[in-house]
Task: structure prediction
Amino acid sequence: MSDFRHPDSTVEIRTCGLTIENGQPAPTHLHGSDAWNQLIYATRGVMTVHTDRGAFVVPPHRGVWIPAGFEYRLELAGVVALRMLYIKARRRAPQACSVVNVTPLMRELIVRTNLVGALDTRVPEQRRLIGVILDELKLLVTVPLQLPLPRDRRAVRLAALVTAEPGSRMPMGKLLRRCGASRRTLERLFRAETAMSLGQWLRRQKLLHALQRLAAGECVETIALEVGYNSASAFIAMFRRELGQTPKRYFDT
Result:
């Protein structure tokens, strides 16, 4: 396996594979390298990647792109199998974290590269594989599974309250009073600091919480009530609007 301390070597892509069983300790605090971008792919289970800019929920067969230099924390739900690619940062690449759909070809490339361990440009077969991977990276499509965090203390307070109790039926008026801000003020803050309206942010928060519970094997009816919906059908309708599929089809994809 190549050495991260030598980014100018002929190794262009490195790998790491982890499977965390129930009850096993997880490597929760990870430091991004200044020399390597990362693509973390979940073959099983759901992980949540926390950065200082927000949270990114990654269901099975999706991935999260982490640019070089980011520090992050992993939160795992159930048994989680991770396969990671580290790509030299000098390559042109997105500079923002994002959750991405992983194409079938990219899945096979990730698995194959993890079996090899590292791809070196001096090896003709590996050099060709590097080229295919870099081409596929350009085709990755982002999906709305990130929750940007506000910075203003009042908006942060509201975010903390609803995250702690995702199914809370506390009246909005009471919630606003606990945050020390009016609805109009919070709408302005969330739009300015997260590029989402307050309502959009709250729906996204419920969706991401629900994804974690679905990955743990809980039934849709239980989750729907937990996140504040009156019925499973109402929750499924929201899920389909946001992600284009029902929960069952989404996790079977």
